[in-house]
């Protein structure tokens, strides 16, 4: 084996020159890589950080929008035992049966209007919502109040319904309607 290597290394001066040139190119490229690798590493870290930040931002938006869809469900009555389920079914069944037997009867598809008492208010001013849980208002818009507090018990924000949807509105923007 050593003899073959020795024979190959003694072959020709052209081969020796090519070998030296190849080694020289390898050393130059290796040195250039050592210089550029920290910069590449820094760029890769910045790209990864930016991707994580964008993912976090979009995930937050997704969570806020998903949570806003659950707000109407949170207002539904809680059922604690089986007897409530049966009586509630019978009550709603008789209500629907009564509506269906009346000529030209219409079924109220809004669960809040059929199961929860509402108070009617009118908005004093325009209000632009700042997040998915809030509800935008126009001046003199009719507003149905479902709860006179927010999730934390704050009475400055009320949970309301308009023709545009559901959400929290500032209580001081509303006046009662008779």
TrEMBL record:
Annotated TM spans: none
Matching InterPro entries: AH/BAR_dom_sf, Dynamin-Rho_GEF, SH3-like_dom_sf, SH3_domain
Location of the SH3 domain: 116-178
GO molecular function: guanyl-nucleotide exchange factor activity
GO (cellular component) term, any one: cytoplasm
Domain of life where this protein originates: Eukaryota
Pfam families for the chain: SH3_1
UniProt keyword annotations, A-Z: SH3 domain
Protein name per its UniProtKB record: ARHGEF37
């Amino acid at each position: 084996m050593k003899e073959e290597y020795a024979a190959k290394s003694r072959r020709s001066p052209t081969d020796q020159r090519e070998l030296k040139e190849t080694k020289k190119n390898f050393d130059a490229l290796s040195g250039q890589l050592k210089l550029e690798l920290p910069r590449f590493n820094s760029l890769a870290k910045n790209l990864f950080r930016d991707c994580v930040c964008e993912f976090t931002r979009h995930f937050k938006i997704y969570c806020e929008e998903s949570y806003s869809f659950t707000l109407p469900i949170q207002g539904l009555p809680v059922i604690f035992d089986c007897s409530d389920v049966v009586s509630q079914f019978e009550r709603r069944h008789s209500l629907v049966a009564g509506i269906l037997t009346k000529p030209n009867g219409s079924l109220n598809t809004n669960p809040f209007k059929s199961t929860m008492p509402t108070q009617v208010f009118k908005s004093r001013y325009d209000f632009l919502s700042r997040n998915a849980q809030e509800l935008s208002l126009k001046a003199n818009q009719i507003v149905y109040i479902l709860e006179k507090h927010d999730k934390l018990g704050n009475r400055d924000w009320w949970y309301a319904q308009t023709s545009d949807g559901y959400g929290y509105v500032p209580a001081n923007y509303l006046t009662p309607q008779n």
